[in-house]
């Protein structure tokens, strides 16, 4: 996970044969996954902008907010707040150290998921949170079997660097192929990730329009913090 390795990968991008460039991209992605797995604590705040439309015209654009907190081995909090113009829905996942819980404003239902079923909380949350509940959490809990779109990222390639917020980010592009079983592809679309060169944490994810359809894309932006001090109170939630 040393930064010099990432810099070396970028240096050979233009000169290396296609197969070598793909190998460098795969190795970078493996280091990113390892960086998230190694975090003792983590927090972020962010937004996802969703855009829909027919042809090339965007007809609907919504801006939603979310935040995440983690303290291993088993304290977690995730909150999604929908764009007020889209309905101002809210979805919360939390775990104070034992079972996972969810609460959804639309249904007013508080669900409890005992140990061994915590992954189900994220599966339920995927749709009402526009998929944000399984993006970075899918990396934070990757060793527990939580899957998300980033686990289906294939055909990786390095796309240079971009400076965001005064920091250098490596661009990593590929194709998300979500599959049933080992062969049937249920959805396929291009995606690009902006990865902080120093921390190896993801700053931005573009999930672009699938081929052959109208506009259906999302841009998720994170303000991630590696190994912050997180108070236990951050993992408590009382459903209203």
From TrEMBL:
Superkingdom of the source species? Bacteria
Recorded hits in SUPFAM superfamilies, A to Z, give: Prokaryotic lipoproteins and lipoprotein localization factors
Q: Which UniProt keywords apply?
A: Lipoprotein, Signal
- Enumerate the InterPro entries for this protein: LolA/LolB/LppX
- Which residues, if any, are the signal sequence? 1-21
| Protein name (Swiss-Prot/TrEMBL) | Outer membrane lipoprotein-sorting protein
């Amino acid at each position: 996970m040393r930064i010099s390795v990432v810099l070396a990968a970028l240096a050979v991008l233009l000169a290396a044969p296609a197969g070598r460039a793909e190998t460098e991209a795969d190795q970078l992605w493996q280091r990113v996954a390892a960086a998230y797995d190694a975090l003792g604590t983590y927090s972020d705040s962010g937004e996802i902008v969703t855009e829909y439309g027919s042809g090339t015209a965007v007809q609907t654009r919504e801006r939603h907010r979310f935040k995440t907190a983690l303290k291993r081995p088993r304290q977690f909090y995730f909150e999604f707040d929908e764009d007020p113009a889209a309905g101002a829905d809210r979805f919360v996942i939390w775990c104070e150290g034992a079972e996972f819980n969810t609460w959804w404003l639309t249904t007013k239902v508080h669900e409890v998921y005992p140990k061994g079923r915590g992954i189900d909380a994220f599966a339920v949350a995927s749709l009402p949170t526009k998929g944000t509940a399984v993006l970075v959490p899918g990396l934070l809990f990757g060793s527990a079997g939580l899957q998300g779109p980033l686990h289906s990222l294939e055909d990786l390639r390095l796309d240079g660097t971009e400076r965001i917020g005064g920091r250098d980010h490596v661009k990593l592009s590929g194709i998300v192929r979500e599959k049933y079983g080992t062969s049937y592809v249920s959805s396929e679309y291009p995606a690009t990730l902006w990865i902080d060169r120093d921390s190896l944490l993801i700053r931005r994810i573009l999930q672009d329009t699938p081929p052959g359809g109208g506009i259906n894309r999302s841009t998720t932006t994170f303000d991630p913090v590696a190994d912050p001090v997180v108070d236990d109170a951050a993992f408590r939630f009382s459903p209203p």
